Amino acid sequence: MTTQTLYSLHWLPLGTRGKVARVNAAGNLRRRILEMGVGPGTEIIVNSVAPLGDPIEVTVKGYHLTLRKDEAKAILVEVG
Amino acid sequence: MRIGIIPNNILQDITRQIGTAETKDTHTHDRIVTAIYNNATNIAKAVVKRQSLGTHWDQKIDDVITSRWLGFPIMFLFLGTVLWLTITGANYPSQVLAAGLFWIEERLAELFLAAGVPLWLKGLFVDGMYRALAWVVSVMLPPMAIFFPIFTFFEDLGYLPRIAFNLDRLFHKAGAHGKQALTMAMGFGCNAAGIIATRIIESPRERLIAILTNVFVPCNGRFPTLIVLAGVALGGLATTSYSSLIASAVVAGIVVAGVVITLLTSWLLSKTLLRGIPSLFTLELPPYRKPLIGQILVRSFLDRTVFVLVRAVTIAAPAGLGVWILANTSIAGQSIINILVGWLDPFAALMGLDGFILLAFILGLPANEIVLPILIMGYVSAGSMVELNGLEALKHLLVVEHDWTWLTALCTMLFSLLHFPCGTTLYTIHKEQKSWKWTVLAAVIPFGMACTVCFLVAQGARVFGLV
Question: For residue range B284-306, what is the model confidence (pLDDT) as tens digits?
Fold first, then answer.
């Protein structure tokens, strides 16, 4: 893997497409994120933000998943 | 793989080895999950054919429904429209049903008299039981038959999880879970079902918050009451062409008030009795599905309308008998109902209600469906009214004969929204939590809320000279 800047998922503007590089969390949160299919290498698209700015909605593995920004913070994405 | 064949001791051994592996290497769980997903992806690639159609407009709809500016207005519009359709549509069928059912009442009365049945027996069965049944059917059936199919339609479409998504921020701030919006949506159907639905909330703390506040969503049994009261007592304020519009806005406002009080109570609970940190919000937004109209009609009619009606009727019949007896048995020249009402009156007046209304809520504990019928029975037995023909007659009964103002109607609606869960819901809460403490609190907290809110509204309106 070439060295590339990783971005936290909650940072990314709408419509960004990327690949999950790392899940920077432990315990329940890590478990839950992985179990929802957001593991390293998974393609992820940021779709929309709720009217009040939180949570966000992403597409992974062909389905729509919602995450709070606090949770999205832990997901590091490789863009481009 | 035949998992059942693996002996227990080997399973335990495997679990132990995974456990030690996890402490050494935190990525064991990751590897297992990744392997499962890779496997699933390969299987899916081999056997699933995807139609590339559809994903696109799904996204477009979501963009509008969850957008910053339109997300909330669309939710209000959705609620308002459903209520408006219900209120406007229910009027005429209600009159027809009432006319038919009360024509039968007269024939029944004639039959009883012709057969030489004692007058008290005729009173018990015709004026007590049959009339309560007729009221329940004519007043509640039409709104339910319109509301439930429309609501089921949107449920099938997949709109409800989007509401949870839109509202999660608020629940999060209140220390509760966004999934609570889903259990609240279930509460529109039935609070007992809403209580069962809270099983989807994993954190026990957030689940309890959802359980204790579920009653603030008006259920099947209370929705028709709210709709009828709004139409009858508040809609009449404006000219007829706007009245149903105003009535729908009022009911929508009541629902929004319920949501606000839910959030407020959740926040208070998470700061006092149920302290803790919010858990995660990972929720799948399902794809939109084309609702199956035939199935919706059958399901909403059989599972909801008929279910509620049967429940209401089976409870209303003995309740009608009971109320008639209370109204026609005298102690020292006063009917029992009037004595009870006299006791409750001063307390009820503080909250903008009257003794009859409060008594109806208390006697209606077994099921919310019978609160309005009991109220009507109480009023009718105390007054001189004989002719009943649907919603118009009800309006006359409340406004002319019992001096209802808009404040009486508003406080009654608020009290109905907040008071205490019905017997079935309390029973369900006890079964789910196995705790008397939480069951009692599930009744006491809403009751306190109802008294406080009604008191403030009634006194506020009086202080500012609005009534």
Answer: 888 888 888 888 888 878 777 78
Q: Does residue B245 lie within any of the structural domains? A: yes
What is the CATH code for A6-79?
2.30.30.90
Would you say B379 and B397 are in contact if contact means Cβ atoms under 8 Å apart? yes
B18: chain A residues, CB-CB within 8 Å: none
Q: Could you tell me if residue B222 is inside a domain?
A: yes
CA distance A30 to chain B (A): 9
In terms of CA atoms, which chain B residue is nearest residue A28? Answer: B280
Is the Cβ–Cβ distance between B211 and B201 less than 8 Å?
no
pLDDT band at B4; cut points 50, 70, 90: low
State whether residue B171 sits within 8 Å of chain A by CB.
no
- What residue of B is the nearest CA neighbor of A30? B30
pLDDT tens per residue across span B53-65: 555 777 888 888 8
Domain that holds residue B236: 70-463
What is the distance between the alpha carbons of residues B67 and A57, in angstroms, rounded to a whole number? 12
Residues of chain A with Cβ-Cβ distance to B287 below 8 Å are 63-64
- The alpha carbon of B358 is separated from its chain's Cα centroid by a whole number of angstroms, namely 19
Domain coordinates of chain A in residue numbers? 6-79
Q: Do B66 and A28 touch (CB under 8 A)?
A: no
**Of B59, B280, B287, Cβ closest to residue A71:** B280
- Is the Cβ pair B66, A53 closer than 8 Å? no
- Cβ distance B280 to A32 less than 8 Å, yes or no, reads yes
B25 within domain boundaries: no
Q: Which residues of A touch B (CB under 8 A)?
A: 23, 26, 28-37, 39-40, 47-55, 57, 61-68, 71
Enter the DSSP assignment of B263.
H
- Looking at the predicted complex, does its ipTM rise above 0.95? no
B62–A57 C-beta distance less than 8 A:
yes
Compute the distance between CA of residue B169 and CA of residue B178 in angstroms, rounded to an integer.
7
Residue B404 half-sphere exposure, CB side, CA atoms within 13 Å?
Answer: 28
- HEC letters along B42-107: HHHHHHCCCCCCCHHHHHHHHHHHCCCCCHHHHHHHHHHHHHHHHHHHHHHHHHHHHHHHHHHHHH
Confidence class for position B23, pLDDT limits 50, 70, 90:
low
- Within a domain: residue B109? yes
- The encoded tokens of residue B352 equal 């903008």
Structure tokens at B275: 């302290």
pLDDT at B29 over 80: no
> Best mutation site among B28, B36, B55, B165 for testing chain A: the one with the most A CBs within 10 Å?
B165
DSSP B328-342: H-EETTEEHHHHHHH
